[in-house]
Structure formats: C-alpha cells, structure tokens
Design goal:
There is one protein chain. The chain is of the alpha/beta class and 252 residues long. 34% of the residues lie in helices and 23% in strands. The chain folds into 2 domains: 1-79 and 163-174 and 181-252, P-loop containing nucleotide triphosphate hydrolases (Rossmann fold, 3-Layer(aba) Sandwich), CATH 3.40.50; 85-161, no CATH class. It has helices spanning 42-49, 70-78, 95-100, 110-113, 118-130, 146-158, 176-193, 204-210, 233-240, and strands spanning 3-11, 17-26, 31-35, 57-62, 65-66, 80-83, 164-168, 196-201, 213-218, 221-226. The longest helix is centred in the C-terminal third of the chain and has 18 residues, at 176-193. It starts with a strand and ends in a 12-residue tail after the last helix. The structure holds adenosine-5'-diphosphate and magnesium ion (MG).
Length: 252
C-alpha cells in the first residue's frame, strides 16, 4: 500500500521533539529502511504509522485517503504486520500458538478465535514453513534461539496477511551473522509478496545491503533519502553526527 506522511510530527508530553514535521511518500511494494542512531526517531515514526503513537501534528494518508476515524484505523492496523526488536512472544505458549495470535485482528475477541478454525491453523503452519520453522510448531517459544524467535515474530506478522510490514530494529539483539540471515529472510518474504516494508536499522552495512531506499534520520529529522549507492561518507556523518575520518595509515 502507498503511504504518505504530511508534516507528521511528534512532540512527547515531556517536551521532546522526537519527530520534526516530516513529509514522506512510501511507495507501494518497496523495501524502505529507516537508518539512524539510537534516539533518532525511528521507533516514533514507525509507531505513528501503526497508530501506537499519536502525532502532535500532520497526518498520514493510505492510498491517498487520510487515516481518520476508528474504522479506517482498524482496517489499517489489520493490514499492517509489525515485527519488534524484542520479539514479544509469549514464552510459555507454543510457537504455533504465538503465530496464531497474529490472527486476532480478524476476530472480535479471543473467544471467537478459540478454538482455532482449521483454516487458521493451516495459515499459521504455512507461515511457519516459510520461515523454516515448521518442525518447531509445537515447541515452547522460550526454547528457541534468538534468531528462531525473531523468525516466529515474522511468521506471526505474515499470518495476518498484511500489505504493509513495519519492523522496528528486528535484528538489533542478534549476532551479526544471525542478523543478516533474519534480514535476508524478511527481505525475501516482503519482496516476493510485494509487501510495502518499512524497517528500521542502526547498522549501515545492513541498510546498504537490503534497503531499496534508505531514509536517514538524525535528531528527529530526515537528513538523507536515497539509494544505498548514494549513502556515502558525508551522508553517514550527517546521520551519525560524527565526522568521518580516514585513518592516516590508509594513505601510507
Ligand atoms: N514515550 C516517550 N516519551 C518521551 N520521550 C520519548 C518517548 N519515546 C521516545 N522518546 C524520545 O524521543 C526521541 C526519539 O526516540 P525513538 O523514536 O525511540 O528513537 P529511535 O527509535 O531512533 O531510537 C528520543 O530522544 C527519545 O528519548
Ligand atoms: Mg527505536
């Protein structure tokens, strides 16, 4: 889905301006990375896009229509899969049970979801197969490794049949090799399903590798917007605020 923010800004009640008025067009079906250091405003922007943070100014349009009213928000949130840094699984519940919670948006309450219809279970198993964890369906979520748990988080988002995928530092708590594998999986799934994806990262290398478009944030402002090839040393220093110096020995 096509998303546009118009002068979207967030100032928290304590006075912190986390997001300066920001206007962005997020094209349908593209994999966009929000890159920036801690405190740059990545989570704030993502949470606005999912209605978890109420903007203090500006608005969001989905497919040209302003998001307004509870029915529009409900439909939008149902079409939006969310993957978090801390996967937020229920540890004592099976992997399958966790994935099925992604279906809750389609039911008026837990009672109408439980017992799960066979079609719901099939969908959940299919999602687990896509992330390579079909054999772990009945394991307790807390018995999985960090990378596996994050893949369950992706399956839980997928089972929702989203059109928009928002991921907030989905690999920040994983070791570099696992982080890259999980990012590759997320990228593959979003690309093959044609999902619009907005994924925040703080690692430049991963942003370069997977971002079709990279939006660099610093102190609540967009300071870069372009392709990986355009993300040069000057751009990185605008995002991270430190001048990039080349060690002298490289000239030797
Ligand atoms: N609920 C909140 N109340 C007040 N300030 C907040 C809140 N959430 C985040 N902030 C502040 O807003 C700024 C942006 O935070 P955040 O969006 O979490 O950035 P990032 O995800 O890039 O680390 C930071 O200065 C942070 O301390
Ligand atoms: Mg954050």
């Amino acid at each position: 889905m096509m998303i546009r923010t118009e002068a979207l800004g967030v100032t928290y009640p304590n006075g912190t301006m986390a997001l300066a008025p920001t206007s962005l067009d997020i094209a349908e079906g593209r994999f966009t990375v929000l890159l920036g250091p801690s405190g740059a405003g990545k989570s704030t922007l993502l949470r606005c896009l999912n209605g978890l943070v109420r903007p203090s100014e500006g608005r969001i349009l989905v497919a040209g229509e302003p998001l307004a009213g509870s029915a529009a928000w409900r439909a939008h949130r149902r079409a939006t899969g969310m993957v978090f840094q801390q996967h937020q699984l229920i540890g004592r519940v099976s992997v399958l049970g966790n994935v099925l919670t992604g279906r809750l948006g389609y039911h008026s309450s837990l009672r109408t979801l439980w017992p799960f219809a066979r079609a719901e279970k099939r969908r959940a198993l299919e999602a687990l197969e896509r992330v390579g964890l079909l054999d772990k369906a009945l394991a307790r979520a807390d018995q999985l490794s960090g990378g596996q748990q994050q893949r369950v988080g992706i399956a839980r988002a997928l089972v929702q049949q989203p059109r928009l995928m928002l991921a907030d530092e989905p690999v920040a708590s994983l070791d570099p090799a696992t982080a890259e594998r999980v990012m590759r999986l997320l990228h593959e799934i979003c690309t093959s399903d044609g999902l619009t994806a907005v994924v925040s990262l703080h690692q430049v290398d991963l942003a370069r590798k997977f971002g079709e478009r990279i939006i660099g944030l610093a102190r609540g402002q967009v300071v870069f917007d372009g392709t990986a090839a355009m993300l040069d040393a000057a751009a990185i220093s605008r995002i991270y605020g430190t001048p990039v110096t080349i060690p002298e020995k490289e000239f030797a």
